[in-house]
Amino acid sequence: MSVQINKLHPHFAVEVVGLDASRPDPALCAQVQAIMDTHAVAVLRDQTLDDEQQIAFSRCFGELEVRPAVRTQVTERIDNPRVRHNEIFDVSNLDQAGRVLPPDDDRRSYALGNQLWHTDSSFRQLSATWSLLSARIVSPVGADTEFADTRAAYDALPEAMRARIDGLVAEHSIWHSRARRGGYQPSAEELRARPPARHRLVRTHPGSGRKALYIAMHASHIIGWPDDEGRDLLDELIDFATRPEFVYAHKWRLGDLVIWDNRCTMHRATPFDDLGLVRDMRRTTVREAVSA
Ligand code: OGA
Ligand code: MN
Q1: What is the pLDDT of residues 253-280, one digit of tens each?
Q2: CATH number where 219 lies
Q3: ∠ at Cα 183 (64, 137), nearest 5°?
């Protein structure tokens, strides 16, 4: 079957029809790599993947992140019979038995942090290259995932701003974004297990050679700057990069496998009736080989 690539947005993001990710081979992986280097977000339609197949396909593109080994409120999912592999991040609104999480559940407040603009794992020193999110059960309404193109945003910045941010470094922490949305309170053990990381605000995207903003709600401040000034600059850049002209909103279809490059995009979840409807999404995350 021939592969069709259809643009979803003027700057980035394509739909790919006619690929089968359940049977990866070097030619298929090279094709996906080329699509991603150019377009940064790829929606692979009509994939029927189980967790093993998702892991096998994702491994074509590097080492995978595993769920943190610290056992606490959120990582209780380590023993999750629904999701047995540590390479699979459970992005559903379900508990281990497949029941919808109740309103006061910690896992629910933790998940609300995904509704802030972010890049996955920017709070790790070896941060993520790609994330691959597989739609196993979709919500019939709401729950779009929005993506912002931070290469196009960088290109559109005024020259004075580009000069201002050149060389700046931000500190990123998972607990910063969790405090801002959802109010999740980490334990001392969680704080120790997931310390902050530092990354340059402007990085060159290896696949395209283009510069991209590396910003996110995990970024709390700029190194060497007063906290409030750093925060203001980060907010200004996030507001700029998420203007409508840089954003693609993805409406999920069953069987979509959406791949995004965290190094040159941001994304966020949008609300849905998570107490009434079921949404089962599973993410694999490819780790950088060396810190950028
Ligand atoms: C993620 C994420 C958004 C969504 O899995 O990293 O941010 O819409 N997901 O579920
Ligand atoms: Mn995410």
Answers
A1: 999 999 999 999 999 999 999 999 999 9
A2: 3.60.130.10
A3: 50
Q: Is the residue at 292 inside a domain?
A: no
Indicate if ligand 1 lies below 6 Å from the C-beta of 152: no
Number of domains, the chain: 1
Contacts for 93 with CB less than 8 Å, ≥ 6 apart = 100, 101, 108, 111, 274, 277, 278, 279
Question: What does the pLDDT look like over 172-189, one tens digit per residue?
Answer: 998 888 888 777 788 888
Do the domain assignments include residue 108? yes
Question: For atom 7 of ligand 1, which residue has the closest CA?
Answer: 114
Q: Is the CB of 281 under 6 A from ligand 1?
A: yes
Protein residue with least CA distance to atom 6, ligand 1: 120
User: 119: Cβ below 6 Å to ligand 1?
Assistant: no
- Answer whether 250 contacts ligand 1 (Cβ < 6 A): no
Measuring from atom 8 of ligand 1, which residue has the nearest CA?
Answer: 269
Instruction: Name which of 72, 36, 88 is nearest 186 in CA terms.
Output: 72
